[in-house]
Amino acid sequence: MINGTVVDLSRIQFAATALYHFLFVPLTLGLSFLLAAMETVYVTTGKPIYRQMAQFWGKLFMINFALGVATGLTMEFQFGTNWSFYSSFVGDIFGAPLAIEGLMAFFMESTFVGLMVFGWERLSRGQHLAVTWLVALGSNLSALWILVANGFMQDPVGAAFNPVTMRMQLTSFQKLIFSPDVQSKFVHTSIAGYVTAAMFVAGVSAYYMLRNRHLDLAKRSFRMAALYGVLATIGVITLGDALGFVAARVQPTKLAAMEGLWRKEVAPMPFNVIAFPEQAEQRNIGKVQVPAVLSLLVTHSLTGTVPGIAALERQAVGRIQNGIPAVQALEALAKNPNDAAALAQFNAHKADLGYGFLVQRFAPDLNNVTPAEVQEAARDTIPPVAAVFWSFRLMVGLGLAMLAYFVLAALYTLRNRIQKKTWILKVAVWMIPVPFLANEMGWLVAELGRQPWTVFGVLPTWMSASTHSVGYMAFSLIGFVTLYSIFIAVEMYLMVRAIRLGPEEHGGSGDAPPQTRPTLAGRTVPAAAYGNKLEG
Amino acid sequence: MRSVLYFLLFLVIAVIVTLLAAILGDEGSWYFAWLIGTTMLVLISAAGAALLDAQEEHAAAQAAAAERKPL
Amino acid sequence: MQVYADAQVIWWLLLGVLLMGLAVMVGMDMGVGAILRSVGRTDEERRVALNIIGPHWDGNQVWFILGGGAIFAAFPLIYATAFSGFYVVMLLLLWTMIMRPLGFEYRSRIANPDWRGVWDWVLFVSGAVPMIVFGAAFGNLFHGVPFHFEWNMTSYYTGSFLGLLNPFAILTGVLSLALAAMMGALTVMNGAEGPMFERARGIAQGGAAAAIALFAIGGFWVRALGGYRLTGGPGPGVPQTPLEQSVTVLPGAWLANFGAHPILWIVPLAGFGGMIGALLAARAGRSHLGWWLGAAAWIGVIGTAGAALFPFMLPSSSNPSMSLTIWNSSSSRLTLLWMIGFAAVFVPLILWYTSWAFWVMRGKVSAETIARDDHAY
């Protein structure tokens, strides 16, 4: 039995490092395609300003990319270091997309990112454009395979438990990659990255326009970002809806928590715009509702309903009682693999094996499980409602705010009047953090809403962690917090500095005044002497 | 002759892509939407930039014309 | 059953290829990091060294990520047991490795010498420490690691952090560092000229000589170590857990595979040949040839370890019968076959575009080219 504190610390460490990693990833996903768009204009029109744009935003891209790669390493380690039971239990399925991610996507992205940065003088325009597109494609394919893996945790399809090897095994690769949850989750996440990049580019461009600097670059970047952003925000909302629709079917507890739905409502169900969920009493304190909207959202009909938390708990009681014999049979099979009676018992109850594991947290000895313990485990199947409810609302609210903003920005930039509307520009600068916050909230909804499971309905979180000591966990957590705090400070410093310096002065050799640049030997040479400032 | 061969090559590629797209549209409609949507997003924002260039040129031409008039 | 057993062996071989790719490609970048402060005396020279590997380190690092991903996918039980058992070591590896991308990307963005000095130390640590850990991990495989399983495959590691720093593991760790320094120096020779070339030449020869000595000592030492032998169990190609086999520990058993198949002696000989060849090539100043011979040395060294350990992957010193082998820790047949399909398509593709990337960026790097290039590290 794993120490509960160790599980909690492992969860905190995973959440902290994943949330941190996810600060950098969406910008990479979106900015790479925006760079490809800029360079496409450069190659088709031949205007050097677009090359300058691709190079300047490329510089910022790299500052962000470095930390994305670095913190991604942590994620790959952490399944093994801190979630070893999870890794051996579902590695047969979960590991495959991670390995394919390396083979198909990350290798491509990382190899070509080197050429994208260093290859401007060595590749033809067409070749360099192709390289940039491959970086964009690679980073997004990378996200695809990671989300195939994550999708399995949300909706474990294409796999079955094998009592001979005591773990989950792949039964259908096609089912795994074409699962509706995976599909909508990938597109939702990828496009959320596009929105992030659009807001970032729009905000930085607006900052330049407000200071009357680099106008040619800023106007064009803002225009491109606004159009990219308005379409991407529409896409992200559409896919968010699709994801909710899928969740209603495959993860009813997550959906009920997202909506603060304690009891079944009659169709058409109203939508809680504001409510204060009280988990212990299973009710909402004070709420503002819009009639009929919930039915429309989650079932796409006026007559559909979804179960409330009370009903889900009652279902869980039945599944727990059915799961206990499955675990007992498994234990017998471990002692004697040829025990036919145990195998038959396992096969009869295997659908609820995960629920049998779940109750072991409260009743380690499955031969003496009291109804109170079953009840406790059933309560445990409900994720923390208030946190999920409010993360979801914050994410949606920020998404809608960004949609409104991008519509406005697109309207004025298309009329070429954006520079006169300084208030729209000022808002853009302030909105840079908004998509990042929305992304983090999205992660919380998805992963907190999946609790108490690591693999929904199959493997409970409490069993998944490694059998470390509290001391080890404290050591690693302190280490991560220290390192990551230093990293973010350095990254923010360099990013803000690169933005302040702007496109002309962002050279690799550092602190240079606009017109001259120190060479490595310490001499100062007019920047124009290098001849590669704007066009090549 | 060379053009014919190129034509045939691209025709074959087009047929393969169509077939793959048809399969993907069936099995993974959201994946398909992502492919189309991302391409569209990039091209529309690129077109927006080209439009800005055209608008600026137009404005510059008008300004030049307005300046010339008094002379 | 035969198909499953074949798939298991293919993945064991593929994992070997990935580890060799990791050692050669990541090893040379880390070697450059480890020797950065001695091969480059001035900031200008250090930038030359960094820019030689600048366009490639990111792509090369994926060999490492892919190695980890492949263990996870093909041998999930190894991934789970080793990564959690070696917790502190893994954190050491991880924390030093995650500083590396920042070292490359951030070091030269600010001209302040203190700033750059700090990042130079970061690059040194993030080059030397992971290579030592990588080598020491192999050393510990020969020793065995104290772990056992519960009935449901929950793994328990019962050793300490210091137990992983035993003399044999330190020897293999230093061997790995020596090879990495040699490869890093040869890489610098490929891309630099003048005094840097000469300094790198000295380091390459020193690294190669040290590696030859350590590999030879390791070979004799292994005869005295307790080796593991599989004496019973369900065998290859049969789905199983690690609780169903029996294993005995005998001194010198790690050389049993070589005794049974003398042809395997080619593998360590190739390792020695590569190291000696690299030493001579470095002395002659023929660094490109030396680099390829150095790669052959890595292949020989890792191949030797694999040939000795087969079919063991992670022996348990506290419960030898629970040792992890190819047969009891691999993924299911379906997963292995799908992954073979993906590897068959993408590994050649990776080799092709990686070669293209090196070809595009071929040639010497000089201070002038860095000063001219706005994007240089």
Present the secondary structure layout.
The complex is a heterotrimer of chains A (536), B (71) and C (377).
Chain A: H1 4-45, H2 48-82, H3 84-118, H4 125-154, E1 159-162, E2 167-170, H5 173-177, H6 180-210, H7 215-250, H8 252-259, E3 271-278, E4 283-290, H9 293-299, H10 309-335, H11 340-349, H12 353-360, H13 371-380, H14 385-414, H15 422-430, H16 433-448, E5 453-455, E6 459-460, H17 461-464, H18 470-501, E7 516-518, E8 524-526
Antiparallel strand pairs in A: 1-2, 3-4, 5-6, 7-8
Helix pairs in contact in A: 1-2, 1-4, 1-6, 1-16, 1-18, 2-3, 2-7, 2-18, 3-4, 4-6, 6-7, 6-15, 6-16, 7-8, 7-14, 8-14, 10-11, 10-12, 10-13, 14-16
Chain B: H1 2-27, H2 29-68
Chain C: H1 2-39, H2 43-53, H3 57-74, H4 76-85, H5 87-106, H6 113-143, E1 147-149, E2 155-157, H7 167-191, H8 195-224, E3 226-232, E4 246-251, H9 256-260, H10 266-283, H11 287-309, E5 312-314, E6 324-325, H12 326-329, H13 333-360, H14 367-372
Antiparallel strand pairs in C: 1-2, 3-4, 5-6
Helix pairs in contact in C: 1-2, 1-3, 1-6, 1-7, 1-11, 1-13, 2-7, 3-4, 5-6, 6-7, 7-8, 7-11, 8-10, 10-11
Q: Can you put this structure into words, describing what you see?
A:
The complex is a heterotrimer of chains A (536), B (71) and C (377). With 536 residues, chain A is mostly helical. Chain A is 70% helix and 7% strand. Chain A folds into 3 domains: 4-251 and 383-501; 265-306, no CATH class; 312-380, no CATH class. Chain A has helices spanning 4-45, 48-82, 84-118, 125-154, 173-177, 180-210, 215-250, 252-259, 293-299, 309-335, 340-349, 353-360, 371-380, 385-414, 422-430, 433-448, 461-464, 470-501, and strands at 159-162, 167-170, 271-278, 283-290, 453-455, 459-460, 516-518, 524-526. Chain B has helices at residues 2-27, 29-68. Chain C is mainly alpha-helical and 377 residues long. In chain C, 71% of the residues lie in helices and 6% in strands. Chain C is built from 14 helices and 6 strands. In chain C, strand 1 and strand 2 (155-157) form a beta hairpin. Classes of the chains: A mainly alpha (536), B mainly alpha (71), C mainly alpha (377). Chains in contact: A-B, A-C. The A-B interface holds A 33-34, 36-38, 40-41, 44-45, 47, 50, 140, 174, 177-178, 180, 183-184, 186-187, 190-191, 194, 219-220, 223-228, 231-232, 235, 239, 242, 413-414, 416 and B 27-31, 33-34, 37-38, 40-46, 48-53, 55-56, 59.
